[in-house]
Amino acid sequence: MTSASNPPTAVLDIGRIDAVADRIATDWGHHGHTALTAMISQLYTDLAELPPHYTASQRAEATTDAADTTAGELSTLLDDYINQQADRSPVTEYGWVMHTEDRHHALTAALASHTADHLTWWLTNQLADYIADREKDEDRGSD
Question: What share of the chain is helix, strand, coil (3-state, %, to 5)?
């Protein structure tokens, strides 16, 4: 398990995470689950620290499985955020009415921020736990 006292040793490529998050947010609603999984899987393949004893096929399977789970979570997270924003008035806290294009840009920026936060959380905390649970399950299956 990963904790504050045992942080991962990897230095994250925040620019890379932000680029994937921007790509996801910019075309949100046009990506299917498979496309999201592929984008996230590629990110995990490039940035995640996996056990050194994993073979190439184990690494591919682990990153794809983790990316599939992350894609499902992101779909729920971002769709919920959009639904909340749809119920809000386009009036800002200063009493100005946001134009449709401005509101779209603000929503896209918020989606990118939520996505980057979620991907960073997965890469720094959740993925290590996911891999540990996966290895436990594999050990139980070989008994």
Answer: 70, 5, 25
Please tell me the pTM assigned to this model. Answer: 0.80
Domain count, the chain: 1
Phi and psi at 96, nearest 5°, equal -85, 145
Span 35-56, average pLDDT:
94
Is there a domain that residue 44 lies in?
Answer: yes
Quote the Cα angle for 2-55-31, to 5°.
70
d(CA 30, CA 100): 19
AA letter at 81: Y
Q: Does 97 map to a domain? A: yes
Domain that holds residue 62: 14-48+56-141
Q: Are 31 and 24 in contact (CB under 8 A)?
A: yes
> Closest Cα partner for 43 from 9, 20, 24, 18?
20
